UniProtKB/TrEMBL annotation:
A Gene Ontology molecular function term of the record: DNA binding
Record's keyword annotation contains RNA-binding: no
Segments of this protein annotated with the region Disordered: 51-75
InterPro entries given in the database record: Carb_Metab_HTH_regulators (IPR050313), DeoR-like_C (IPR014036), DeoR_HTH (IPR001034), NagB/RpiA_transferase-like (IPR037171), Tscrpt_reg_HTH_DeoR_CS (IPR018356), WH-like_DNA-bd_sf (IPR036388), WH_DNA-bd_sf (IPR036390)
Tagged with keyword Transcription: yes
Organism: Nocardiopsis tropica
UniProt xrefs under Gene3D superfamilies: 3.40.50.1360, Winged helix-like DNA-binding domain superfamily/Winged helix DNA-binding domain
Protein's recorded name: DeoR/GlpR family DNA-binding transcription regulator
Amino acid sequence: MLAAQRQELILEQVRRTGGVRVADLVESLAVSDMTVRRDLDVLEHRGSLRKVHGGAVAPEGPRTEEPGFEAKSTRQEDEKHAIARAAAGLVEPHSAVGLSAGTTTALVAEYLADTPGLTVVTNSLHVAEVFHRTARPDQTVALTGGFRTPSDALVGPLALASIRGLNLDTLVLGVHGMQERAGFTTPNLMESETNRALVEAAATLVVAADHSKWGTVGISTIAPLDRCDVLVTDSGIPDAARAALSERVGRLVVTDVRPRTEQG
C-alpha cells in the first residue's frame, strides 16, 4: 500500500471516530510502528490531524467555533451511548437532577426517561423533549428560558434566573472540551455562564465526555477538572489523558464501547 493510501485511510478513520491509536493502525494497516508515526507526522504537518500521546485526533478548530446539535450528534455515536448509559446509572430515583445541553446529555435523558420520581432541570430543548415524549406523571421537568445557541442550549439572563437558588442532587454536564490546564470548556461565553450556574447548584457533578473531547479547548472554562466528582468517558481515551484525569477528578469511569446492538 502506498503512503498516500495509508494516510487517506488514517484520515478517514479520524473523520469517522474523532481519533486513532498507533497500536490499532499498526494492526489494521499491517505496517510498523515507525511507519505509522511517520504518516502521522506528515498529516500533522499538513494540519489534517493533531498528534496526542499514543495516537492522533481531529485538528482543533477555533476556540469560539460551535458546531450545531445535528452535526455533533453523528460523532462518536457508540461512545456517547455507552457513556450516557453509565452516567444515567449514577442518578438516583426521586432525586433532583440537572442536565446541561449537548448531544451526550440528550442521550442521558433517554436512559433516564423511565426513572421514577425525578425532578429534572435543563437548559436543553432536546432534553426537555425527551421527557415530554415519555410524560411520566411522577416526573417534573423544568426548562429554563433564554436565548438559543447553535447547540440548542438556552442561555442568558433568563436561564441564569431560572437556575440560581436551586439545589440539585446531581448535575450531568456535557462539555465541548477538556484539558489539564483549561479544565472543562465551551466555545460559547453565555453557555459557559449558564453551565457554571448549574455546577454551583449541584451537590455532585458528573461530566459525560467522550475521548475526542480531550485536548480540545474552548474559549471559556466551565469548571476545573478537580471540581468534577465523576467523569464518564470511553475506552478510546489516551493513556496519558487517563492518568491525568485519574489524578484530578474524584472518580474516573471508563466505559467499554460496543456497537449499540450489543449494548442492550
